[in-house]
Amino acid sequence: MTDMPTPTINASDVRTTAFGDWISVDSRTVQLAGSQSMETHVVRFPAIALIVALDGDDLVLIRQFRFPPQSWVIEAPAGRVEPREDPARTAVRELREETGFQAGQVELVGTLRISPHLSDETTYVYAATGLVPGPAHPDKGEFIQRFMVPRGNVRAMVREGRIVDAKTIAALAVCDVI
User: Fold this and answer.
1) Domain named Nudix hydrolase: which ranges (predicted)?
2) pLDDT, tens digit, 9 for 90 and up, residues 25-82
3) 28 within some domain
4) Does residue 40 sit within a domain?
5) What is the dihedral of CA 11, 12, 15, 20, to 10 degrees?
6) Do 33 and 114 reside in the same domain of the chain?
7) Count of domains observed in the chain
């Protein structure tokens, strides 16, 4: 592979448009090799902590109604990392809120960039074991159903298009579940 020059970014040219309390879009002109330039846009989105929770040979998943696709989506429990919050704490909190399970052991297994062409979002992937069941407490406005899936069925669910959430599929691969 040939080395390509790194584009020069003129930071003074950034225009930010905010959408609500935690999403914004930075637009800027990037100077490329020679006199070429292009307009770029970056969605600024907080980090996400996702937790792949195994209870014996069963995977804990959720079905959550997602408004952009107007449908139920099967996902691993996950949530936005609050400012100055440790992502591991977020993962444990989201597991408890969305599924009711408390984790005995939690381990960071990797990080993901789901849409690096569009967003600066980082997804921290944790694995959880030693689960203790309890009642779920979803946030207001979250429509969630918890369910268990035998680990051996997960790959087929992805192939059949039943699990389509990219961050969940990538996290399952990082955790060697699929």
Assistant:
1) 43-171
2) 989 887 776 677 788 899 999 999 999 999 999 999 999 999 889 999 999 999 999 9
3) yes
4) yes
5) 70
6) no
7) 2
Q: Based on the domain organization, do 69 and 117 belong to the same domain?
A: yes
Q: What is the pLDDT of residue 171?
A: 98
> Residues 34, 58: one domain?
no
Query: Smallest Cα–Cα separation from 103: which of 85, 78, 76, 126?
Result: 126
Q: How many CA atoms lie within 13 A of 31 on its CB side?
A: 8
Q: Are 57 and 150 in contact (CB under 8 A)?
A: yes
Taking CA atoms, 98 is separated from 17, 64, 115, 137, 150, in Å, by 31, 10, 24, 6, 19
Residue 34: domain span? 8-44
Q: Is the dihedral of CA 129, 135, 139, 145 positive or negative?
A: positive
Judge if 116 and 146 occupy the same domain.
Answer: yes
In a domain, 145, yes or no: yes
Going by C-alpha positions, the residue among 121, 100, 122, 103 that lies closest to residue 111 is 122
Contact assessment for residue 173 and residue 125, using Cβ atoms and an 8 Å cutoff: no
Q: Per the structure block, which two tokens stand in for 176?
A: 């060697």
